[in-house]
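Title: Prediction job returns without error message
Component: structure pipeline
Severity: low
Priority: P3
Assignee: unassigned

Description:
Job completed but the reporter wants confirmation the result is attached to the right record. Sequence as submitted:
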Amino acid sequence: MSTLLAHVTIKAGLEEHWESIAKRVFLSTHENEKGCNRYEYWRGSEDRTYYVLLSFESFDDFMTHQVADYHHNTDFRDCFDSFKLEWVDPISGASPLQESVTSGVIDGEKDDLWNQYVKNHSNETPKWWLAQRAK
């Protein structure tokens, strides 16, 4: 499983536009991606802040989402004032999700877009997670 939390601040005046994109991408993701466990948008308490919770059955399912036309070819990036994508790991017994796989493999059989997303989004699993998982 691969789970992430996006921290987003939207440029002033683009909140309605951002939310309309969020609704479209949410629907398309849930209609088209069997490997999607969670894909949800949330408003934060600070002005123009949003969060996106993404959880997929595998890292490859996350990549399938990233390269999907309805995700990759939107103008939502133009809305960002700031953006941070953070890998998160569920606490066993305190979440129904499973441990996060935080990296993928460059695949010569996949296209350049896929492999660029794998390169950009792969991270080493934090060592402190491994210690906590062992308990």
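Comment from assignee: result matches the submitted record. The domain at 2-133 is CATH 3.30.70.100 (Alpha-Beta Plaits).
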